[in-house]
Amino acid sequence: MRPTLLAPLALAAALLGTQPASATAQPTAPGWEPAPSAPWDVGAGVRCDFPVHGEPVVDEVEQRVLSTHPDGSVRRVAYRGDLVVRVTNTATGASHDADVSGSAVVEHRRDGSQFWAVRGPVLVGVGEGLGSLPRGLYVVDGVFTMDIGADGFKDVRLVHGTTDDLCARID
Asked: How many Cβ atoms sit within 10 Å of the Cβ of residue 104?
């Protein structure tokens, strides 16, 4: 696994609509703290035509708060660390281990929207009609930005990179 910075399943969690959970066992550098990822499930038709389960099999993600809003809530946060997520078609048992060990700086806006500056790979889930990518579950790799509207619309803008359709890999 390459030692790159990461946009974690905390990142993926935000992209998929789940929340981080357990702690990582690795010690962190000053200013960095663990940002572990929780397993997640999405029903048939939400991302893929079939139900999908995701679970981190490697999770060494850390986060560092770079700035806060006047009320103390997080404004900008950086993510780094190794993350491999096992994505499983729960109808058939087919699975794929996706290395999503990218890095990101995420700006949390007051209206609930977010702006991501990413050096992938990162896991991105898109609902029907809610993104510049078709409905699906993707590993987006490269240099890109993602603007997530307060309504959940994900506008992915690749500067240089690729998308890998995980639904097709586990169909």
From this structure: 25
SS3 103: strand
Please list the pLDDT of the chain residue by residue as tens digits (171 residues).
333 333 333 444 444 444 344 333 445 567 999 999 999 999 999 999 999 999 999 999 999 999 999 999 999 999 999 999 999 999 999 999 999 999 999 999 999 999 999 998 999 999 999 999 999 999 999 999 999 999 999 999 999 999 999 999 999
Question: For residue 146, what are the CA distances in angstroms to 18, 22, 35, 49?
Answer: 18, 26, 20, 24
| Cα separation, 133 vs 28, whole angstroms | 35
pTM (2 decimals)? 0.82
Q: What are phi and psi of 94, to 5 degrees?
A: -65, 140
Contact assessment for residue 104 and residue 78, using Cβ atoms and an 8 Å cutoff: yes
